[in-house]
Write a structure and sequence with these properties.
41% helix, globular, alpha/beta, eleven-stranded mixed β-sheet, three-stranded antiparallel β-sheet, 14% strand
Amino acid sequence: MTNSPDKKNLADNQPYKIYEFKKNNQEKISGYLVVSTAKLNVETEESNNYLSKVINQNFFNINDGQAEPSAQEMLEKIAESLQSSPEPEIIINIHGYSSTPSDTETGCKKIYEYVNTHIQQPNKYIFIGYRWPSENPIKTDESGSFGQKLMNALYSLPTLLAINLVVGLTISIWSTIVLLFLNILSNSAVHFFTVLLILSGIVSSIILTLIILRISTYFRDTYRAVNYGVTDLVELIRQLDVTVKLPPNKRIKLSFISHSMGCFVVTDVIRILSDVFDVKSINKEPNSDIGNVFRLGRLVLVAPDIPVETILPGRANFLRSSLRRCEEAYIFCNEGDLALRITSTAANYFSFPARTRISGYRLGNITVKHFNNKNDKVGQTPRYGVVNFQKQDYEKDYTLDKPYNYLEIRSSSSEHRRLEEITEISENEVQPADLFTYFDCTDYKDDRNLQIGVVSAALQQPAINFGNYILLTLAFIRKSINNRDPQGVDTHTGYFQGGFSQKAIYELAFLGFQGFLKSLSIQGDEEAQIRAFSQKCQEKQIQVILAPQIYQQKTQD
């Protein structure tokens, strides 16, 4: 095969490496891990093992003593599989914030094994796990141990901030000593040293806060996601688009599973892949085709760490046109997500242009109206299952109301805001929120006899209040210490551990909604399917808002 200029450039400066998952006799679906070669720190040498080798080498086809295949060779191998498939599909999984290489590889391996066990459809799917450079604040990685990260944070502190910190801490210490041990001071001297202590404490606290924010790695990961994660994934898809040769009437369906900050990566990638100058896009009727060979398929966002404005109407919505290109889109969320409710909103408080606290919450904080009665009285039973299913006595037997009318943000029992209260909408126009199907897992349990939920405490009450969050934090700590603790809760990544939620995430991405229903042994006409699916979700205490376009898409097909 003759190398094009694009392939030559890729060989000279590979933005990523590609590893193939090791197959056994039962595995029919091919799987790959794409690793961005971007560095965690700009000073790191290119030859660092963190970049050149995967951590769990037993997961992959790696022969000791032999040179690794180049990225171009692996691209051509993937292209051959896609070209030989009658209905080729690629599903890409993208991890979130603070994920170590080992965590990412283990998570991708888990998906790879699941789909080969439950979905086996040879010569159709290719699974790709994508690892962008993310840094865990606690675990040892390329940046070293926690102690080394702390020393690096102090060493890299700008000169002005370092001087202010040293001076502030020195004044604070001496002022404290003077006030504690010198009782012979006059009142005026006491007041003077008290003022010094307060001012120096304020200066020191501000700089120490900046150091803590750096050690948390949140903003560092945000930078890497924007400048490395997005661009390298776009380059991967572009190179596949160049390498794969298909007839004009054949397309490769491209779907995504993403978690947390990975949702930011994938939504930005979709924006870039969408042609803003396409006439159909301008007329708000874009199709799913992108590039020469791809077609956007399904988008699954799990605990998305992106702004709520992503699903709100208006000029500020930067995803409206590109979301319309996806055939199906899903959001998994829960009210008790501590990472999004506390950490992410606190970090983004400095940079996100919101005037109110409600508008500053993340998309993973979105919830479904919890109770049948608007007054939300104590003692009522929450409504589970498909909440926007409405029975009609005329024309069709049922209707799926617009999702927009059923969504809200709950900050506490006294602070509920429905989306329709946050922004005005046009009744005749499809809103971005209406393009998603929502799984609110706040009260989700695989077994109702269990005392605690999968991703929250499953309290079945109008809102989670301050005291509940304290108990939920303790449950989260217990889960972090012992992953098998029955009283522990992983509020941010627990979706991938629950039986039903894990099945829904993977199979919606690979099979779509209709395929997911078949895997649940749900048959019948549209109304019977919705009722049966709603009953399944009621058993798990999950609230679902179905996007009307799911069945519109089925009718069009």
